[in-house]
Amino acid sequence: MNEQFYDLPQEKQMRIINAGLEVFSKNDYKHAVTDEIARKAGISKGLLFYYFHNKKSLYLYLFDYCAKLIMNQVMGSDGEADAEACGKHDFTGVF
Protein backbone atom coordinates (compact mmCIF):
# COMPACT_ATOMS: atom_id res chain seq x y z
CA MET A 1 0.00 0.00 0.00
CA ASN A 2 1.12 3.52 -0.78
CA GLU A 3 1.60 5.49 2.46
CA GLN A 4 0.08 8.55 0.75
CA PHE A 5 -3.31 6.91 1.31
CA TYR A 6 -3.05 8.15 4.90
CA ASP A 7 -2.58 11.73 3.63
CA LEU A 8 -6.06 11.68 2.08
CA PRO A 9 -8.88 13.39 3.93
CA GLN A 10 -10.55 10.98 6.36
CA GLU A 11 -13.81 11.15 4.39
CA LYS A 12 -12.11 9.97 1.19
CA GLN A 13 -10.26 7.20 3.00
CA MET A 14 -13.55 5.97 4.43
CA ARG A 15 -15.24 6.05 1.01
CA ILE A 16 -12.52 3.77 -0.35
CA ILE A 17 -12.58 1.49 2.70
CA ASN A 18 -16.37 1.21 2.72
CA ALA A 19 -16.53 0.57 -1.02
CA GLY A 20 -13.92 -2.17 -0.70
CA LEU A 21 -15.67 -3.77 2.25
CA GLU A 22 -19.00 -3.70 0.43
CA VAL A 23 -17.69 -5.30 -2.77
CA PHE A 24 -15.58 -7.94 -1.01
CA SER A 25 -18.46 -8.79 1.34
CA LYS A 26 -20.78 -9.49 -1.59
CA ASN A 27 -18.27 -11.39 -3.73
CA ASP A 28 -15.46 -13.80 -3.12
CA TYR A 29 -11.95 -12.46 -3.76
CA LYS A 30 -11.81 -13.78 -7.30
CA HIS A 31 -15.11 -12.16 -8.32
CA ALA A 32 -14.66 -8.84 -6.51
CA VAL A 33 -14.20 -6.26 -9.27
CA THR A 34 -11.88 -3.32 -8.65
CA ASP A 35 -13.81 -1.23 -11.22
CA GLU A 36 -16.85 -1.53 -8.95
CA ILE A 37 -14.84 -0.59 -5.86
CA ALA A 38 -13.48 2.51 -7.60
CA ARG A 39 -16.94 3.48 -8.88
CA LYS A 40 -18.54 3.11 -5.43
CA ALA A 41 -15.69 5.11 -3.86
CA GLY A 42 -16.06 7.87 -6.46
CA ILE A 43 -12.48 7.60 -7.68
CA SER A 44 -10.78 6.32 -10.82
CA LYS A 45 -9.45 2.79 -11.00
CA GLY A 46 -6.00 4.27 -11.63
CA LEU A 47 -6.18 6.20 -8.38
CA LEU A 48 -7.31 3.08 -6.52
CA PHE A 49 -4.24 1.28 -7.84
CA TYR A 50 -2.06 4.26 -6.97
CA TYR A 51 -2.94 3.80 -3.31
CA PHE A 52 -3.24 0.00 -3.39
CA HIS A 53 -0.91 -1.48 -5.98
CA ASN A 54 -3.20 -4.41 -6.71
CA LYS A 55 -6.40 -6.09 -5.54
CA LYS A 56 -4.50 -8.30 -3.09
CA SER A 57 -2.93 -5.26 -1.42
CA LEU A 58 -6.36 -3.68 -0.95
CA TYR A 59 -7.86 -6.94 0.33
CA LEU A 60 -5.07 -7.41 2.88
CA TYR A 61 -5.39 -3.79 4.02
CA LEU A 62 -9.14 -4.25 4.55
CA PHE A 63 -8.57 -7.52 6.41
CA ASP A 64 -6.11 -5.77 8.73
CA TYR A 65 -8.50 -2.83 9.12
CA CYS A 66 -11.32 -5.15 10.23
CA ALA A 67 -9.02 -7.06 12.58
CA LYS A 68 -8.04 -3.79 14.26
CA LEU A 69 -11.71 -2.78 14.63
CA ILE A 70 -12.43 -6.08 16.36
CA MET A 71 -9.40 -5.81 18.62
CA ASN A 72 -10.39 -2.28 19.64
CA GLN A 73 -13.84 -3.55 20.60
CA VAL A 74 -12.49 -6.53 22.55
CA MET A 75 -9.60 -4.84 24.31
CA GLY A 76 -10.21 -2.38 27.11
CA SER A 77 -8.39 0.93 27.39
CA ASP A 78 -5.78 -0.77 29.58
CA GLY A 79 -4.92 -3.28 26.85
CA GLU A 80 -6.63 -6.14 28.65
CA ALA A 81 -9.49 -8.10 27.14
CA ASP A 82 -12.82 -6.58 28.12
CA ALA A 83 -15.03 -9.55 29.06
CA GLU A 84 -18.17 -7.43 28.94
CA ALA A 85 -17.42 -6.25 25.39
CA CYS A 86 -16.65 -9.80 24.31
CA GLY A 87 -20.01 -11.01 25.53
CA LYS A 88 -22.20 -8.18 24.28
CA HIS A 89 -21.02 -7.58 20.72
CA ASP A 90 -21.86 -9.54 17.61
CA PHE A 91 -18.87 -9.00 15.31
CA THR A 92 -20.41 -10.68 12.27
CA GLY A 93 -21.62 -7.28 11.05
CA VAL A 94 -18.03 -6.09 10.68
CA PHE A 95 -17.44 -8.50 7.83
Automatic annotation (TrEMBL):
Segments crossing the lipid bilayer: none
Protein name: Transcriptional regulator, TetR family
Domain HTH tetR-type: 10-70
PANTHER family in the cross-refs: ACREF/ENVCD OPERON REPRESSOR-RELATED, ACREF_ENVCD OPERON REPRESSOR-RELATED
Keyword DNA-binding: yes
MF-aspect GO terms: DNA binding
PROSITE patterns: HTH_TETR_2
Organism: Hungatella hathewayi DSM 13479
DNA-binding region: 33-52
Swiss-Prot/TrEMBL keywords: DNA-binding
SUPFAM superfamilies in alphabetical order: Homeodomain-like (SSF46689)
